[in-house]
UniProtKB/TrEMBL annotation:
InterPro entries: Acnase/IPM_dHydase_lsu_aba_1/3 (IPR015931), Acoase/IPM_deHydtase_lsu_aba (IPR001030), Aconitase/3IPM_dehydase_swvl (IPR015928), Aconitase/IPM_isomerase (IPR050926), Aconitase_4Fe-4S_dom (IPR036008), AconitaseA/IPMdHydase_ssu_swvl (IPR000573). GO terms for molecular function: 4 iron, 4 sulfur cluster binding; aconitate hydratase activity; dimethylmaleate hydratase activity; metal ion binding. This is 2,3-dimethylmalate dehydratase large subunit. Pfam families: Aconitase (PF00330), Aconitase_C (PF00694). Keywords: Iron, Iron-sulfur, Lyase, Metal-binding. Residues 41-470 form the Aconitase/3-isopropylmalate dehydratase large subunit alpha/beta/alpha domain. Residues 638-683 form the Aconitase A/isopropylmalate dehydratase small subunit swivel domain. Transmembrane segments: none annotated. Its EC number is 4.2.1.85. GO terms for cellular component: cytosol.
Length: 753
């Protein structure tokens, strides 16, 4: 079904794969690297003149309503006077306006006022989810788009799109660049054709299962090539492409064809199409070979999209597989939140409580139409199982109505909702305690369905394609594979732009300079943050030894999203579902630093400084010369969302560093840097614990010198001193200056003086 090469490959004529070790002598790797689609797009957007060190400028930006307020506030504080490129502000996350009084609606009004003042595009709540709007109205062949949402992926339309923390969008708004080393590019070579009943989530989950754990495409670009591309419609490809985020790749792009042109033409934008193919000989750093005809209906069990099985294999080994999930549930929820999938087994079948088809992955036209086809003249039943469907935009919703699909779904008992991302991040359709929800959405991390293990409420999500969800619904909630039924092609899609024409504010190139930003009482400015001193003392306030720590664990989604415009208010939730003592410990450290700045050295710090003064060269070091901050250790932090608040919340609480074995994603490491924290790494098991301190001398000068190794000393709670070497992966010159300044805001303010 899927095989991975164990090294680089040459792709010849888009079809034939040759291991580089067996390639003809006349194949020139240096030249063939330029033959990828990714190289051509990056080259066209690079401003450095040097492809090894890219300085990229994007064609458009996009954000939603739990990120755009902070981005605009940061850019404004940094000197922004207008949006220098098209910037789309969608409202698909805090759409319901149901938590915190006027908070969410206030953010929406702020977004509309910013679109007027600075010249942006404002998409009101319920009109479209962020990525569907960008597919329909903005993406095009050869373009680059940057979004403050991790699932910013429009590769199926020939667009290299990336999801990053807000700091990277701020740089674009200030006409700066996105700076990275030239990334690796991995071919995803597709052959065959998906069987009837196989949907995009089946293909995507199979690929995620093959490449996530081994890091095969981590921080690389996935380039989809091969004859199998044309076996799928562009709408189908969009559903596969958006899930590449869950592989931890940097971005993705597909070869384009006549179907890509038809998709763009149907949306009134045929001029955005051009043929994209690899050169006759192209070199890739690896190759994922996918036989689409061998893909079977898949399921990603809790608690990660890579926890993948075929539905057939799950049903054949139900007890053994579910037992492993129950063990993980016990680790996550503890004894206070009992959860068991084994309790849902009935006569050898798994019963689920809920089905959801929604968002940028599940809510597109062909998925919802397929679900309606399966449920036509069927019955979801009047028991505990429920089904909710969220079309991804009003134009998609309108066409489904015209085709009769909505009526078929409603008659079967499904509930139809408007475009909303809530089920993807824990703010909509939370199932019952001990419930299992099967979802065609993007993620199934712990608490992504909205449960709260800390107060004894726990449910879980398994990811499946809309077709198998519909088959399960038709079977009353007993897990069922889509291929148990016959399927027909979706009816042709006809795009109607009228909802956008009547509701979307389009202000590109017509900003209103004297317009006022509309602030609600929850929209707060960023607190002041100090510049980095030369010597720092890090107090260890959390030590997380899980194999992977997601951004949802660093800062929970769901109920916290209403506070994203209030830095200090949101910070109260930091690590609340993983380490509830973190906030209190961090505040205590911040109080020590605030007192030190005023010249008042707390009594509890004196023993630490006496130990530091015993080190060679530091006998005369005074406490006033050492900045104090908190630090978390995690084995592999930052898997998942681009949400910058996972880092900014640490920073406003006094965080100075992260120490990690490795960083799960580039975007999380970028967030740490842009918020002025040091992205340290440590080989092996940490020899420190919560309550210990780490003294890092000369860190500012070391950053200026481009150091990769930072000698430091652990000071344990019993006073013992022990050396430790921290490392740091390469930083750009700008990144070093941002950390030294204390954060991106400080760096930009200094530049504008």
């Amino acid at each position: 079904m899927i095989t991975l090469s164990d090294g680089g490959v040459f792709l010849v004529d888009g079809k034939n794969i040759i291991d580089e070790r067996q390639a003809p002598a006349h194949f020139q790797k240096e030249e063939a690297v330029k033959g990828t689609i990714a190289w051509s797009i990056l080259h066209a957007h690079n401003t450095s003149g040097e492809m090894s060190r890219l300085k990229l400028k994007f064609d458009a930006l996009t954000s939603h309503d739990i990120t755009f307020v902070g981005i605009i506030q940061t850019a404004k504080a940094s000197g922004m006077t207008h949006f220098p490129l098209p910037y789309v502000l969608t409202n698909c996350h805090n759409s319901l306006c149901a938590v915190g009084g006027t908070i969410n609606s206030d953010d929406h009004m702020f977004g509309l006022s910013a679109a007027k003042k600075y010249g942006g595009i404002f998409v009101p709540p319920h009109v479209a989810v962020i990525h569907q709007y960008m597919r329909e109205m903005m993406a095009g062949s050869g373009k680059m788009i940057l979004g403050s949402d991790s699932h910013t992926r429009y590769g199926a339309l020939g667009t290299l799109a990336m999801g990053e923390g807000g700091g990277e969008l701020v740089k674009q708004l200030l006409s700066d660049t996105y700076d990275i080393a030239y990334p690796g590019v991995v071919a995803v070579h597709l052959t065959g054709k998906p069987q009837p009943g196989i949907g995009p989530h089946d293909v995507a989950l199979a690929i995620i299962g093959a490449v996530f754990a081994n890091g095969y495409v981590k921080n690389k670009i996935m380039e989809f090539v091969g004859p199998g591309v044309s076996s799928m419609t562009t709408d189908f490809r969009n559903g596969v492409d958006v899930m590449t985020t869950e592989t931890t790749c940097l971005s993705s792009v597909w070869r384009t064809d006549d179907d890509t042109r038809r998709f763009l033409a149907a949306h009134g934008r045929e001029e955005a199409w051009r043929q994209l193919d690899p050169a006759a000989v192209a070199y890739y750093d690896g190759c994922v070979q996918v036989d689409l005809s061998a893909i079977k209906p898949m399921i990603a069990l809790p608690f990660h999209p890579s926890n993948v099985y075929t539905i057939e294999a799950l049903n054949e080994n139900l007890t053994d597989i579910l037992h492993s999930v129950d063990r993980e549930a016990k680790r996550i929820g503890g004894t206070d939140a009992p959860f068991s999938l084994l309790s849902h087994v009935e006569n050898g079948r798994l019963r689920v409580q809920q089905g959801i088809i929604a968002g940028c992955a599940g809510g597109n036209y062909s998925n919802v139409y397929a679900a309606a086809q399966r449920l036509r003249n069927q019955n979801c039943g009047s028991g505990e199982f429920s089904l909710a469907v969220y079309p991804s935009s009003q134009p998609v919703f309108m066409e489904l109505v015209k085709q009769g699909a909505v009526a078929d779904l409603m008659a079967a008992g499904a509930i139809i909702r408007t475009a909303f991302c809530g089920p993807c991040f824990g703010a909509g359709d939370t199932p019952c305690h001990n419930g299992l929800s099967i979802r065609h959405t993007t993620r199934n991390f712990p608490n992504r369905e909205g449960s709260k293990p800390g107060v004894g409420q726990m449910s879980a999500v398994a990811l499946m394609d809309a077709r198998s969800i519909a088959a399960t619904a038709a079977n009353g909630g007993l897990l069922t594979s889509a291929t148990d039924y016959e399927w027909e092609e979706a009816a042709d899609y006809h795009f109607d732009e009228t909802p956008y024409q009547h509701r979307v504010y389009y202000g590109v190139n017509r900003r209103i300079d004297d317009a006022e930003l509309v602030y609600g009482p929850n929209i707060k400015d960023w607190p002041e943050m100090e510049a980095l001193t030369d010597n720092i003392l890090l107090k260890v306030v959390s030590r997380i030894m899980d194999p992977v720590t997601t951004t949802d664990e660093l800062i929970p989604s769901g109920e916290t999203s209403s506070y994203r415009s209030n830095p200090l208010g949101l910070a109260e939730f930091t690590l609340s579902r993983r380490d509830p003592q973190y906030v209190g410990r961090s505040k205590a450290v911040r109080a020590l630093e605030q007192a030190r700045v005023k010249g008042d050295i707390a009594e509890e710090l004196l023993p630490l400084f006496r130990q530091i003064q015993t080190l060679p060269g530091f006998a005369n070091l005074q406490p006033q010369q050492v900045e104090i901050g908190s630090m978390i250790y995690a084995v592999k932090p930052g898997d998942g969302s681009a949400r910058e608040q996972a880092a900014s919340c640490q920073r406003v609480l006094g965080g100075l560093a992260n120490i990690a074995g490795e960083y799960a994603t580039k975007r999380y490491r970028s967030n740490v840097i842009n918020w002025g924290m040091l992205p340290f790494q440590l080989a092996g098991e940490p020899a420190f614990d919560v309550g210990d301190a780490i003294f890092v001398p000369g860190v500012r000068d070391a950053l200026s010198a481009g150091a990769s190794r930072f000698p430091a000393w652990i000071i344990s709670q019993n006073g013992q001193l022990s050396p430790v070497e921290l490392t740091m992966a390469p930083l750009t010159t700008e990144e070093r200056e941002i950390i030294k300044a204390g954060c991106l805001i400080n760096y930009n303010k200094a530049r504008n003086l």
